[in-house]
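Hello,

Our lab assistant flagged a job as stuck in the queue for most of the afternoon. It eventually completed. Since we weren't sure the result was trustworthy after the delay, we are filing this so someone can double-check. Below is the sequence as submitted and the structure that was eventually returned. Let us know if re-running is recommended.
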Amino acid sequence: MTDTVLAPATGALEKPATKPARPYFSSGPCAKPPGWDAAKLATASLGRSHRSKIGKQRLQYAIDLMRDCLRLPDTHRIGIVPGSDTGAFEMAMWTMLGAKPVTTLAWESFGEGWVTDAVKQLKIDPTVIRADYGQLPDLGAVDWSNDVLFTWNGTTSGVRVPNGDWIPEGREGLSFADATSGVFAYDLPWDKIDVATFSWQKVLGGEGAHGVIILGPRAVERLESYTPAWPLPKVFRLVSKGKLAEGVFKGETINTPSMLAVEDAIFALEWGKSLGGLDGLIARSDANAAALQTIVAERAWLGNLAADEANRSTTSVCLTVEGADEALIKKMASLLEAEGAAYDVAGYRDAPAGLRIWCGATVDTADIEALGPWLDWAYATAKASN
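-- returned structure --
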């Protein structure tokens, strides 16, 4: 049911009467948690050294909250590192690859970025298994005697791996999961993941520039037993005198973090904990994705880039638009932004022309529901102006 009205004189759509209360649908940074206000952030750590007692306490508290919300086992370490998810994943690549052959999976732009790093920067000649946008590669073709790099949730294509069943328990190589836009939205099988990375700005709605790296015991063993052939920048160094630099995983960050960004992440994590933790976060994300799929099902001109529902993201949902090219999508996005009805809904620049609607837990389902009539209006208006 919509409140969009067809104007009989012109055939154009009149503007809907109701707008999303929080029109933030960007896939990163995504919407802040409901009720967020900068005045609500704790400030005692601001203006203090991150090495001070309170600085280290707050960093450790953020790590503890992440462990709790992710239901991460004690066998896995969590570190806050520079450079967002990109920095965290490249830290893992630079410090651990080269000990074994490597397989990289790519079905969207970020996976392709790791292929580029492996081929052109590290020059390790990986086996590359690709799929087009909207598709998933043949996961059964992966040779697990290799180290394997993949994105858990393809943010720019809306395609995710369905589960961890394709990762064997007795694997020889390490599994490297770029899990940004996947953590806090799926119940990840941590026994199948040796290395995971993500950033706060996806899913939690945190501020940028900080990444998180999670290491399982097999990854730690690799770090302590293998020295890469290439130089390591200081911000990538996780080992000191042959042993893991444990301080990194206790809030002693490699470089100076923004304590304001840390406090912002703590706010989001505490909010997530108030929902019941991971189950509550997943429930909100699933409800949002279901509401968006209802909108899609009711409109012949909308579709899913990820055709297979089993592999379809419930966070960064990528939609096809009938007859759309890049210019039409830009026009739709501009119209919606100008009306304050939806921000940042154009698909990723390297993806097929379409829309991308963030459905993670920090979005309210009522705002997804209110978006449908505005998509109708923007589509009709943009087409009429072409």
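-- support follow-up --
The delay was a queue issue, not a problem with the job. The result is valid. The first strand starts at residue 77 and ends at 82. The CA atoms of residues 20 and 367 lie 4 Å apart.
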